[in-house]
User: Which sequence fits this backbone?
């Protein structure tokens, strides 16, 4: 068999399928792209955060912990249920919104949330509708 015929046999669709079904060896990476790139691409997806009906100083430690894991991500804050929010909570939202590489979008912010931000002059800084 000459070299051209041998090459055409190894490039046949059957051989390509067989090669693609083989398990990776220790020499081959499990992913075709670096894991960091996969994580970065996932961070580009919107993450939904449902806000509680009452957000005061008492709840801030838990909320801060939750939000901190989404730094550098695209986050949608669902505020329809918010009935009471205090100044400390609005300050936490302001700090989170200003975190580098973090994009925050409000979804259905309640009138109470918008009103509290407006009274403190934070509506524009929080990107809340008036």
Assistant:
């Amino acid at each position: 068999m000459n070299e051209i015929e041998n090459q055409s046999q190894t490039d046949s669709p059957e051989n390509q399928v067989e090669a693609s079904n083989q398990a990776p060896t220790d020499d081959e990476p499990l992913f075709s792209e670096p894991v960091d790139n996969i994580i970065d691409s996932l961070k580009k997806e919107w993450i939904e955060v449902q806000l509680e009906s009452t957000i005061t100083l008492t709840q801030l430690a838990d909320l801060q912990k939750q939000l901190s894991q989404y730094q550098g991500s695209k986050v949608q804050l669902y505020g329809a249920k918010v009935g009471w929010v205090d100044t400390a909570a609005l300050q936490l939202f302001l700090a989170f919104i200003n975190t580098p590489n973090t994009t925050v979008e409000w979804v259905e912010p309640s009138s109470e949330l918008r009103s509290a931000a407006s009274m403190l002059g934070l509506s524009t800084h929080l990107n809340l509708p008036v």
User: Anything to note?
Assistant: The longest strand covers residues 46-50.
